[in-house]
Amino acid sequence: MQPIGPLMHEHRLIERLLHLVEREVREVEAGSRPDSAFLDQAVDFFRSYADRCHHGKEEDILFRELAKKPLSADEKRVLDELVDEHVQGRALVRAIFEANHAVARCENAAPAETLLPLLRKLCAFYPVHIAKEDKHFFFPVMRHFSRVEMDAMLKEFEEFDRQLVHEKYAAVVNDREAALKA
Ligand SMILES: [Fe+2]
Ligand SMILES: [Fe+2]
Questions:
Q1: Ion ligand 2 — residues with CB under 5 Å?
Q2: Is residue 111 pLDDT above 80, yes or no?
Q3: Residue 56 contacts residue 160 (beta carbons within 8 Å)
């Protein structure tokens, strides 16, 4: 297996979540109140899975190793674009988190008007990012790696994933303890 195998597999779950967000957009467009509990779960999915787990393996392992290779000018340009898109994705998810909480607190007189464009943007933005990786970047750049290098990356991916659940819940305890001391 190549290191892009697990990453492409993760793209499929991100797409499934995006389809659920699209469905939520249609419900709100039809007049339903936004489902704040689901949108909170979607935000957690994008933060913990799409960003920390998935983009984490891309940036901290695959892209780090690619940066050591003699990439073509086009490959280097796309790599920079992908990293920039991860930054944009984080900002968008943060805006959705805030808009969703404003809706839940009923602070916004027309909550859907704030939230809907952000959700639509997320559903338009991520599939383009995923397609860029799946169809235009991942396969060609694998030529830079030997079998040994690919296996080392796959092993590092496993260790990266293994740490995540511990990292996530240690942060829950640390953050709460810090808040109580403040
Ligand atoms: Fe990515
Ligand atoms: Fe990706």
A1: 133
A2: no
A3: yes
List the CATH number of the domain containing 171.
1.20.120.520
Q: Is the pTM of this model over 0.90?
A: yes
| One-letter identity of residue 141 | V
Distance CA 162, CA 2 (A): 19
Q: Which of 1, 17, 102, 7 is nearest to 55 (CA)?
A: 7
CA 59–ligand 2 middle distance (angstroms): 10
State in Å: Cα 82 to ligand 1 middle.
Answer: 6
Show the domain range for 16.
4-181
> What domain count does the chain have?
1
Amino acid identity of residue 25, one-letter, is V
- Evaluate if residue 54 carries a pLDDT over 70: yes
* Ligand 2 centroid – CA 84 distance (Å): 12
Gap from CA of 115 to ligand 2 centroid (Å): 24
Contact 75, 137 (CB under 8 A): yes
Residues found in the chain: 182
How far is the C-alpha of 155 from the C-alpha of 143, rounded, in Å?
A: 19
Q: 136-150: per-residue pLDDT in tens?
A: 999 999 999 999 999
20-24, 26-30, 80-84: range with lowest mean pLDDT: 26-30
Residues contacting residue 100 through CB under 8 Å, at least 6 positions apart: 34, 36, 39, 40, 43, 115
